[in-house]
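WARN retry 2 of 3 for item q-0093 after timeout on previous attempt; input resubmitted unchanged.
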Amino acid sequence: MKILLVGEFSNVHWTLAEGLRALGHNVTVVSDGDGWKNYPRDIDLRRGPLNSKLSTIHYLWDIAHVWPKLRGYDVVQIINPVFISLKAERIWPFYRFLRKHNGKVFLGAFGIDHFWVKVGMDCKTFRYSDFNIGPKLRNTPEQLIWTKDWLTGAKGELNLRIADDCDGIVTGLYEYDCCYRPFYPEKTRFIPFPITIPALIQGSGLREGDKDLSFPNEWKEGEPVRFFIGIQKTRSVYKGTDIMYSALQRLKADYPERMEIQKAESVPFDEYQKMLSTSHVLLDQLYSYTPAMNALLGMSKGLICVGGGEEEQYEILGEHELRPIVNVQPSEEDVYRQIYNRLLSGKEDVRQLQLDSIEYVRRHHDQIKVAKEYLEFWGIDNLM
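OK item q-0093 returned
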């Protein structure tokens, strides 16, 4: 079958494409590489500076050459209502072209959009989120911008039109499912994010099988625990990495011989992966209930995630045994306390949490398993 994936967030579409190709399908990924992260794609639609008229002309020229070729696919999935780097009010005709000249069209709920903002700001659905802490809004600069764009602006209007029109909506996290299911219960399907599983653990079943698995960043008793934190300077407050990093620095001052800290600031994906490979623990997404692509990638490599690990996200996966994530509440004191209690006090086996992290991703996020779930939802028979 021919499948077209348009747009990219955090390597979701490229990883899914690899799983689908392994099952024998013909897949094309069209994207800008998710900006500076520069993820792989088959057709590049990267745009230059947004405030440059010349870059706009070049981008429109590129789209004019690419878009007529995007026809004849059995399934199209767009990463977000804003799936190309144009103003929202200009995107609807490009969506209609995909709708007219292809088979089924699906919308991905993988990031910021109308429903994520709407539900996050109700201060009721989530105990905490990117938008609220309990009954109070966080009022970050990002929140004010996204409220204007996605609730009452052109992006919100585009989101509603596409959600009404498309054949189905795929939610990649527990939180996104909470946002769409009340409004589109019949067409919403939760499917976990896909992750490329290293060959050495494919099908291993660590809880039942090989406890002697060796991996490059394996923690050995007596050595310092190496913590990794990635910081995007412009989104540090929004994502909570400012609070997490402050807690790490306090822990380092209090227990200097027990831990090391490695920090990456806005580095490309390839360099980021290299830095991950020597760490034991990854701090990510303070205000999330769920590990997203960044954390899941680290967990597949044996890193322990400190971040979102609420019971709701285990329940939606049907996971009743593993609890590998060091779940933290959105405060510096809780981050400090949970890291000390679970990783530095000597009461927990760090290596076992690494093994459990690998097993968690193998069970629920293997790109082949996830690709099959997509095919079933899309209504494609996998028997070629």
